[in-house]
Design brief:
Mean pLDDT: 89
Strand content: 15-25%
Number of strands: 11
Structural class: alpha/beta
Number of domains: 2
Helix content: 25-40%
Shape: globular
CATH architecture of the largest domain: Alpha-Beta Complex
Oligomer: single chain
Low-confidence stretches: 278-302
Order of helices and strands: EHEEHEEHEEEEHEHHEHHHH
Number of helices: 10
Distance between the termini: 37 Å
Radius of gyration: 20 Å
Length: 312
């Protein structure tokens, strides 16, 4: 069975896809396959069909839907999700395979550096920020081994992620419920709730300045983030409205430079109104009585998360 499946999704920037493919084909490990997902626009001008498997998705498919189709079609026991435009260094998978020898590890985070400023980090995974925003760990910081060693991400960015195939199966795969921008946080949360650990492969290096992703409406982005804030477990009730107000304030202040931010604010407000609407509660006389054991896995996962955050 194939050990590693490298899944790349392409949209409008075929130049970024080819930049990634050149490096992947040059440095690919043995016993691996390459899967490229596109919406029919990529014509394969270099005739790579003998080395690359192409998966076509409907036009208008999002980043998450495309990656989901790609890993479902892949055969590897480890799925490497890679954004078009992300360029791997030589030997970038060697430390990763070692981490997956531990069956408790569900995902591995590589180190992504800026291509134009290799002394700067682009990200070492993702986490939920203090105001419940999407946080790229160590973004823009100087590349320093001690800093990387201190990183405690919740999970990998979908632009550069290694995930155990069985773990993806166990959590139901990728979800577009929170949009392309927050799908990595959602996946990391569900992996943690399922009892999987995340590891950082400090020797796994990649470089990127741009990543090819489909354009999305800012109104939808605001709504999706608001849903994430409302649904994230273990957050004190007073933090949710404060985080929403903070995010809307920041976006309003940024709107003179980028008017699309106002559309995001509108999306947040519409989602807040929707969340405030009263819903009917139905009783179920046949409902089961759950024991403490039914809740223990989630509690243990939350305790691991809290321990990880204190260590960070």
């Amino acid at each position: 069975m194939t050990q590693l499946s490298i899944v790349v999704a392409c949209f409008g920037r075929t130049d970024l896809l080819e930049e990634s493919l050149v490096a992947v084909l040059q440095h690919r490990p043995a016993d691996s396959e390459i899967v490229v997902v596109h919406d029919g626009r990529y014509a394969d001008p270099y005739d790579l069909k003998d080395e690359v498997r192409f998966v076509t998705v409907p036009s208008g498919s999002g980043w998450v839907e495309s990656l989901e189709a790609g890993w479902r079609a892949a055969r590897g026991t480890v799925i490497h999700l890679l954004g078009a435009g992300v360029v791997p260094d030589e030997g970038w998978t060697e430390g990763v395979t070692t981490e997956f020898l531990d069956p408790a590890v569900g995902a591995v985070v590589p180190v992504v550096r800026e291509a134009s400023r290799p002394e700067r980090l682009r990200c070492v995974g993702v986490d939920l920020g203090p105001m419940l925003g999407h946080r790229l760990i160590a973004a823009g910081r100087l590349d320093d081994p001690s800093r990387i060693a201190r990183c405690r991400p919740l999970g990998p960015s979908l632009a550069a992620a290694f995930v155990r195939r069985q773990a993806l199966v166990d959590v139901g795969g990728l979800s577009s419920e929170f949009g392309d921008d927050l799908a990595d946080l959602d996946l990391a949360r569900r992996l943690e709730e399922a009892g999987y650990d995340v590891a950082v492969a400090k020797e796994s290096g990649l470089r990127a300045d741009q990543v090819d992703r489909p354009a999305r409406r800012w109104t939808d982005r605001g709504r999706a983030h608001q849903r994430l804030i409302r649904s994230w477990p273990g957050i004190a009730n007073w933090r949710r409205p404060m985080a929403s107000l903070w995010q809307m304030t920041i976006e309003t202040l940024a709107s003179p430079r980028d008017p699309r931010r106002l559309a995001s604010v509108w999306g947040r407000l519409s989602e807040l109104r929707r969340g405030a609407e009263p819903t009917a509660v139905e009783t179920d006389e046949s409902a089961q009585v759950l024991s403490l054991d039914d809740h223990r896995p989630r509690r243990e996962s939350s305790e691991r998360s809290e321990s990880r955050r204190r260590a960070a």
